[in-house]
Amino acid sequence: MATHLAPRPFRVAIIGSGPAGVYAADILTKSQEVSGGDVHVSIDLFESQPAPYGLIRYGVAPDHPRIKGIMNALHKVLDRGDIRFFGNVTYGRDVTLSELRSFYDAIIFATGATKDAVLDIPGIELDGSYGGADFVSWYDGHPDVSREWPLTAKEIAVIGNGNVALDVARVLSKHADDLLTTEIPDNVYAGLLASPVTDVHVFGRRGPAQVKFTPLELRELSHSRDVDIVLYEEDFDFDEASDAAIKSNNQIKIMVNTLTNWLVEQDERDSKTPASRRLHLHFLHTPVEIVGTEGKVSGIRFERNELDGTGNVRGTGEFIDYPVQAVYRAVGYFGSELPEVGFDARRGIIPNDGGRVVDANGTQVPGLYATGWIKRGPVGLIGHTKGDALETIGCLLEDRSGLPVPERPGESEIVNLLESRGVEYTTWEGWSRLDAHEKDLGASFIPASGLDIVRERVKVVDRDEMVKISRT
């Protein structure tokens, strides 16, 4: 009697366990060709950090209201058991591209964008000038950044008009005790508690109708206790393009109405007892220089702008100086180059055609794919990565029959390699242990006298401790 062997699984490695990587894995497992056909897919998800979730764990403010919902959705995907998780594994160091090629039919890069985009103005190198992405990594307890952050400034400038700029400004201006209900690490709480900040200024280059943040993030600003929002009437300029945008885009209409209402209510609020901290929103300001004294930030200079009728701006030749002791640039994220993979240094992405990685000549590199911000750049909301993943997986499945066959496709090969090199990789079961440990830390938290605080978790920051807990 003839013996029929089951077909070999189609093996895929995904580099990065943030939303882009998890969405790609989920869409691949649920695709009609896989779920309704005869294709058996085996997916391994690799993450350089000991814990999963990427941007959701290390790139979103801890008090963001949607963070729990997104993390729960990612958890459900990874908790099904049909996707293997390998944490604390760095691509290019612990495992190379050629090795992955020998184990997998296809490799998807979903490494995101974690660096600050460049802001090339004089004084950017001064002591007290910081990248917003670096600050986000600190307050989110990223294991690869310092535990300390120099929070010594009373007056701070935040450059940018996107959601990250608002997150940075909100965390800087918020009272530390009001963040205790979140998962912030103990060192972050201690640093924010000692901050002497009184004024945080957020500067945008264009007008109120051209901001890049969203209504939810804007409204969150008004929820901070003992923080007044300060607006300036001269910044409220609307041209023909602004009026058209307000009429045609409900989101823009909501934000402009919110800002305008705050401006109108400001006079009434000013008659009441002022808050101990203020968050200023400025529009129509282009940064031209960070001013320094003895190597330290002492101010920032802007040129006033005016709208040109198209929604864009032009300089007026009027310059304004603001006394600040720290400047945070939050003008966007930028991708990082990966070993053995092409990189577009201008856009900060892996060159690709619809998710298919291409070489310098634009020719497809068989078996290599990209999704998320490393594919299209750091634009759009987290949910937009689903569309990216759908396109990339569609290309992968189209190419499947023509992809190179791996030399060693067995599922144990990658485990044997990592263990032979002494790589202390973490697993999904290990993350469950770390997750439970962090929740236990929150449950056992003893608040200071007079504080009625319930903490869901306290995030573990130290990498070695994370690995130890995960692998115990």
TrEMBL record:
Catalytic activity: 2 reduced [2Fe-2S]-[ferredoxin] + NADP(+) + H(+) = 2 oxidized [2Fe-2S]-[ferredoxin] + NADPH
Binding positions (NADP(+)): N161, G162, N163, V164, R205, R206, E217, G380
Domain FAD/NAD(P)-binding: 10-179
Name of the top EC class for this enzyme: oxidoreductase
Cofactor(s) required, per the database record: FAD
Binding residues annotated for FAD, in chain numbering: A20, E47, L55, W373, G380, L381, I382
UniProt KW Repeat keyword: no
Pfam families (alphabetical): Pyr_redox_2
EC number: 1.18.1.2
GO molecular function, one term: ferredoxin-NADP+ reductase activity
Keyword list, A-Z: FAD, Flavoprotein, NADP, Oxidoreductase
Record family assignment: Belongs to the ferredoxin--NADP reductase type 1 family.
Protein name: ferredoxin--NADP(+) reductase
Organism: Arthrobacter alpinus
